[in-house]
Amino acid sequence: xxxxxxxxxxxxxxxxxxxxxxxxxxxxxxxxxxxxxxxxxxxxxxxxxxxxxxxxxxxxxxxxxxxxxxxxxxxxxxxxxxxxxxxxxxxxxxxxxxxxxxxxxxxxxxxxxxxxxxxxxxxxxxxxxxxxxxxxxxxxxxxxxxxxxxxxxxxxxxxxxxxxxxxxxxxxxxxxxxxxxxxxxxxxxxxxxxxxxxxxxxxxxxxxxxxxxxxxxxxxxxxxxxxxxxxxxxxxxxxxxxxxxxxxxxxxxxxxxxxxxxxxxxxxxx
Length: 270
What we know:
- By secondary structure, this protein is mainly beta.
- It is built from three helices and 13 strands.
- The chain has a single domain, classed as Lipocalin.
- The radius of gyration is 21 Å and the shape is elongated.
């Protein structure tokens, strides 16, 4: 429960701050007085796909099996980026009238060197060097309804699921430990997606979800905020920040992971 409360505030506070910033000075979107048939059709239906470069750092706890040592990563953001071996994120969004669908897939890989306790009495050393890592792939899908649609803002509510493929790793040569377990599970989620028009070509997007509820993980959550500039009718460039968290503990495997960092992306709209 303590971890749940901590994770909730880590997700909720940045999300509320992003919404307040995005709504501080919204400008109404400019529209022609007499829209064409094409503009009317575009207002009813929309589709887009976005590819991001995500500079995600990792923090949290990893225990790759019952009785295995715990590897704890608790560093500054700059240090976390140094341990990231790479991350990508692709998302898609489709709307037909007020019915909305979204999906995203992301993969991150991080490695870490540190010390783990030996549990041995004196004169044996209390800790020994260890090398750990975590590869995580997540696939999220959700469907919902546009509950609010104004000239300068929209709000979508969605329900769906997030599938995880988690691969923790721990190597402790001094203790002859080399563990590489696998954990696959699916979490239900509820999500909110809000879009704000700030200027004729500038907008802000805030997306957040939370779920888990012990079905797969104890809790999972995602928050992303982006500032978006429309270069042309079909191309949008974005910059922002994404936070993705999961707290999973089953069959002796513990993964209490937080992935966070800035991102830049390009969107193609249809």
